[in-house]
Amino acid sequence: MNQDAGRHDAVADRALHPLLAGKRLIAFDLDGTLIDSVPDLAAALVRALDDERLALPEREDVSRWVGNGTRKLVERGLAWALETPVEAVDETLAARVHAAFLSYYGEAPHRLTQLYPGVAETLFALRDSGFVLALVTNKPERFVAPLLEHFALCDAFSLCLGGDSLARKKPDPLPLCHAAERFGVPAGHCVMVGDSRHDMAAGKAAGFATAALTYGYNHGEPISDSMPDALLDSLSELLAAPARTSSIR
Ligand SMILES: O=C(O)COP(=O)(O)O
Ligand SMILES: [Mg+2]
C-alpha cells in the first residue's frame, strides 16, 4: 500500500469534523489559535514603550493589535500611546521600539503564554490520523521553535512558517500555497484553521477550506464576520463525530 492510500484509510477510521472530509493538509495559525500569547506580547511591549517613557497599554488593548506580525503590533502600540494614526508613527522610533520589543520578547516568549484547551491532544490525533500539519504564523520565525519546544508540539508539524519566512505573510496566500505545494496537496484538499480575518483571507485566497476559532484575537471583532466555512469554540471540535454538523455553514 502506498503512503497516500494508508493516509486515507487512517483518516477514514476516525470521527472528524465534517469540514475535514477528504482533506489531507491542515494549516494552523499560532497566536490566538493554539496559544494565548498576549500576556507575553503585552509584557514585552510594555517594557519597550516604558523605555521611551510612553503610556502603557493593558493586555486587552494589545490583544486588538496582534495578527499582522510584531512590527505592526509595535506600530499600533505606538499609535495608541502617541494618540496618532498608525501611518503617522515615526519610522526611526518604530524601528527602535520594535528592536527592544524583539529583545524583551525573546527572553522568554513562553513565560506567561498558555496552550488553549485540547490543543496538544487534537494536533497529535490529527497527525496520527494521517493529516499533514503545517504551522503558518505571522510571528517572526525565530520565536516559533522555542514556543513549540516549550509546549512539546514540534513533532506535530511537518512544516513551520513564520511571518518572515517568505516574501509575504498572511493575509497573502503565499505561505499557504507554499505549504500545499511542498507536500503536493491540491488546495481543495487543504484547510486553514485560525483566529483572525487574515487567516480567513489567506485561506480563501489560497483555495483552502477555512475554520475559525471564536476565542482568538481578531482585532476585537467577531470572526464570524469573515464567513469561515466552520466556526469552532474549541480546537477539539475538529475531532467531533461526523454527525455533529451544526457548526458547519
Ligand atoms: O504575530 C502576530 O501578529 C500573530 O501571529 P499569528 O499569525 O500566529 O496569529
Ligand atoms: Mg492568530
UniProtKB/TrEMBL annotation:
Belongs to the HAD-like hydrolase superfamily. CbbY/CbbZ/Gph/YieH family. Mg(2+) binds at D29, D31, D195. Its cofactor is Mg(2+). Specifically catalyzes the dephosphorylation of 2-phosphoglycolate. Is involved in the dissimilation of the intracellular 2-phosphoglycolate formed during the DNA repair of 3'-phosphoglycolate ends, a major class of DNA lesions induced by oxidative stress. The keyword Zinc does not apply. Pfam families: Hydrolase. The keyword Magnesium applies. Its EC number is 3.1.3.18. One of its GO terms (molecular function) is phosphoglycolate phosphatase activity. It is an enzyme of class 3 (hydrolase). Pathway: Organic acid metabolism; glycolate biosynthesis; glycolate from 2-phosphoglycolate: step 1/1. The active site is at D29. This is Phosphoglycolate phosphatase. It catalyses: 2-phosphoglycolate + H2O = glycolate + phosphate. HAMAP family: GPH_hydrolase_bact. Keywords: Carbohydrate metabolism, Hydrolase, Magnesium, Metal-binding. It comes from Halomonas piscis.
